[in-house]
User: Which sequence fits this backbone?
């Protein structure tokens, strides 16, 4: 196992969510159907086909637990990188923020669980009564509802934090080679996460769809730059992965800091477009990160990279040049027309 890979993994805390949610369903078997309709005796055996399940409770009452779990999963993904079935985050991020945030998710989940269990018996009865109005022949399905204690054991939210190490002491062992393969690619995972954030900015904020036609917005506001801010923060957390990661984070922060006007338009919008389009492609993001180590200004770097990209990107460079030559052209229709070439 190389020292670089070992340092990357040793510098991370793996966090794994362990969330269990009662499904609110019970398996439907042949006997359940035959009790209501003997004509169904020719149904295939359970070895051949599954008959599905029936609901014991209103699914909307259980959806709230999935919502909390989903928010916790998205939060962790934004803070770290997928690693060995968990999410690897920096110790500082875990100690200073993530631990408290996960405890808050746990507290919210448990509060929802307590409220649900208090009304459980009534909720199950109300659901059965409602369903039997439409399905009167299936009252037997609700003769033995699960107990509150049974359901309580199937509602839980916890998380586990741990460090990982190579399984063997010898760097050249076969076990360590397998482990080394598993933990490689963290930089690629990071760039894919950055590309996803940039793609969100492009598709949800820089573009708009009206009457089935997709066009580029003529301006945005600083509030729309959240995906870039998150991408820069994650890059900064993981700058130890590669010497080019830190400079890329600094480049993004430089562009965000320069776009502090209430309306981001003209040349500033071109910079945001250039950066976002480059970052939205993981391979181009890696190239941009490497170029960022040269210490060039964001204007020079993005101008060179967008021209090198070819196809639609020269449109950005042309608009940048026109804005530089004629400040009055900032709000001209040609800006939006040139941006539309990027689509």
Assistant:
């Amino acid at each position: 196992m190389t020292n670089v890979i070992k340092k990357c993994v040793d510098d991370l805390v793996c966090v794994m969510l362990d969330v269990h949610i009662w499904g609110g369903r019970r398996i439907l078997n042949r006997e359940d159907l035959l009790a209501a309709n003997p004509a169904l005796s020719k149904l295939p055996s359970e070895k051949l086909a599954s008959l599905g399940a029936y609901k014991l409770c209103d699914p909307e009452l259980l959806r709230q637990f999935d919502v909390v779990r989903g928010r916790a999963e998205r939060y962790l993904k934004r803070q770290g990188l997928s690693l060995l079935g968990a999410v690897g985050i920096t110790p500082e991020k875990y100690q200073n923020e993530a631990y408290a945030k996960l405890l808050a998710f746990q507290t919210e989940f448990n509060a929802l669980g307590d409220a649900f269990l208090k009304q459980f018996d009534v909720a199950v009865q109300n659901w059965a009564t409602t369903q039997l109005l439409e399905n009167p022949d299936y009252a037997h399905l609700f003769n033995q509802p699960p107990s509150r204690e049974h359901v309580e054991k199937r509602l839980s939210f916890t998380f586990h934090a741990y460090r990982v190490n190579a399984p063997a002491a010898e760097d050249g062992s076969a076990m360590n080679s397998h482990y080394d393969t598993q933990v490689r690619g963290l930089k690629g995972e990071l760039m894919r996460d950055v590309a996803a954030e940039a793609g969100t900015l492009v598709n949800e904020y820089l573009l708009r769809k009206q009457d089935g036609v997709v066009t580029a917005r003529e301006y945005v506001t600083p509030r729309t730059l959240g995906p870039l801010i998150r991408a820069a923060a994650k890059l900064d957390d993981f700058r130890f992965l590669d010497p080019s990661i830190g400079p890329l984070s600094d480049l993004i922060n430089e562009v965000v800091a320069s776009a502090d006007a209430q309306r981001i338009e003209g040349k500033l919008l071109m910079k945001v477009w250039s950066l976002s389009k480059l970052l939205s492609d993981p391979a181009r993001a890696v190239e941009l990160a490497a170029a960022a180590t040269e210490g060039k200004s964001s204007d020079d770097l993005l101008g060179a990279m967008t021209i090198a990209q070819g196809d639609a990107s020269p449109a950005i460079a042309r608009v940048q040049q026109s804005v530089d030559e004629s400040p009055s052209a900032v709000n001209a229709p040609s800006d939006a027309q040139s941006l539309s070439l990027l689509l």
In short: The chain has 15 helices and eight strands.
